User: Fold these one by one.
Assistant:
Number 1:
Amino acid sequence: MRRPSGWKLRPGPVLRTLVLTMLLPAVAASADEAGAKTAVAGLWSGGDSLMRVVMQGERLSMTVVAIRDAVYGPDETAGKPGTPRRDDNNPEPEMRSRLLIGLELLEDYRWTGRRWEGKIYDPGSGNTYSSRMELDGNRLRMRGYIGMPMLGRTRHFDPVAVCDESVARMVAVSGAELALCD
């Protein structure tokens, strides 16, 4: 098809609409990705534990802030009753003296463009698993697995915005300092 002489393509409402229709989904997806990437940062409760997730450059860190049973009980042989729990199940004997409060759980956690992935250490078993982390609504969903994600277990954490009774109890037993509960 030949254009008439002197005809020029001018940006009009149809062309602007076409360009915006093509660009807006890409911009929105980029904004959603950035939001999903940073939205995992914060304080999370798993019922029997409080975890703090922070971004450190392009990686993610998760530390234990408080746990329900923060000290050894009278019938436990792993530690002296009333003393803080340690990383007793760690397969490396030199690591078993580490306190659980403040323990870093993530290793090489990186953003994939859709979710966070890396390794997570489970102090309850002493095992390290491949792991994924992402938001599921307003809850943090973590899946730990060996080999394939379908061969694993998912755990959900709720955001902690107020110092309710269960949070206050864990913080007090753990000896943790949490501005939220001051």
Number 2:
Amino acid sequence: MECGVSVSDDPRDPPEAVDGEDQPLDSVDLAILDDIRALFAAADPVPSGLVARTAFAIDLVGVEDEIARLEPVGLRAAGARGAEESRTITFDSESLTIVVQASPAGATLRVDGWLAPPAVRRVRLRAGEVDFATESDELGRFVVLDVPRGLVQIVVEGEDEDGDGDESADVDGDSDGTGVSRVRQVITPAVVL
């Protein structure tokens, strides 16, 4: 019988005990792990900026927030003149669809957006360390100017459901005892514009 190999043909049976398996890692174990780490770093390196993009994407998310999904769109604006090209992206969640169109405006972008169902809502576009705050109109339309190219994320606050003009109601409608009220937000994944 070999150490660490199951004596049964049934793959559900655990392997036999290996000498020293309950011992702490020693310098040989650590050297082997370093070699494995180097092998994976060479064969499949972590994309540059992945950690920063991940932290950016989850920075705002609260337990009660709704995350929108990025919907694939295969069409680009067909411009008859010039080389300018706009990009349209659709995000969809259980309660809201967000469509944005990013168009070049010199060195920056103009972002036009539409919410469905349409409603007046506070909208924030996060671009790196900068937050652009605006509000959609009664048709659900909003515009953000001078957006730098790069990673962006859109946050749409929930609408006033009771019609009293106060959007600071608790997400679940009752007090959580913290003294802090929040409106449910719809948050898009971070995308590069």
Number 3:
Amino acid sequence: MKEYLIMSHLFKVVLSIFAFFLAAGQAEAGKLEVELSQARQATALYHNLDNALIDGYVDIGVYVPGMGHHYLNFSYVDDAFEVDKPEVLVYANSEAGGKLRLVALEYLIPAALSASAPEGFTGDEDHWHINQDINMWALHAWIWYHNPDGVFSDLNDRVD
């Protein structure tokens, strides 16, 4: 009987620990979804490229297969990650008519201003990397076009 009580108590402790971590993970996932929603709300008007140009985004002449055309807002380049102020908007060629459509955001922080990967979105899914060509920490967020490799993947095989 004593062994049964010990095992029962141990089971309850393990179950409580599991429930705690499950709840923490769900809360973190919920916060990430809120942040991605904030990014969508802040950039929805940029589906119309003219709005992006009016707000200071400029075509920097960078096209990367698997990403698209990059439009940078130089005034946003600093040492802060701001979910609602992506430094770069990424556009891909539309299947219909060659028009550009917004597919992703890119966040940039100069490496000279941050020795380590910036704190970005909640959780561990966002993997910043140093873009050696421009010496900046970079993070893509595919919030406007599904990426089967994940929202924070650098490349999207679905984009020409």
Number 4:
Amino acid sequence: MLTMAAINAIVRRLERSHASEPGVAETVARINQQNYSLSRTRLQVPRRQPACRHLANAIARAWRVDKWVSGTLGDIMPLLRWQCIPRERKIAVPPDFMTDYAYAQIVGPEGIFSGKDFSMGLFIVGPEQNYPEHEHLAPELYWLLSGPTAWSFDNSGQWSEVREGTVIWNEPHKVHATRTMEIPMLAFWCWIRDINGPYTLLGQPAKPL
């Protein structure tokens, strides 16, 4: 079973390397507020998705960000229940994106630990993919463990290359989009509150999760 010690170690490394960056202190505070006792764990059947074929390459790249985190990710991958993009969002993404995108919750409604208005986990996107512009009520933090990737914000149409190891912080309703390059993107992510709030893909009506 994934232990609190492993979660703590990953979080401490995030905090140590990015403590002064926007969103990190708030995210760490919310992580520490969750209940990780054995009584709050849930048995779940691990599951892979087509995008999981990119994990080995991404974890190898994560070694450049943090060797310990990379090794720990390899250990916990068999425990995770990977999922595809939620059904209500599928209409707005390219068909091939569905075989190159997956996420797994460690904490949250579908995670090993239930969480309290909080989700945390891992996110993988294969090479040469475009996650379209979208926004949501939940404040969101990404710690990019592989890359580089390209990001666009505020519906600007301007793209910037972002290296692995970078933290991305999205305030509520901040429009953002992601493009991967030749390397798959693996990220540690958190939605720190309002996780059941609306999620909007550009040009699509707001939908509750």
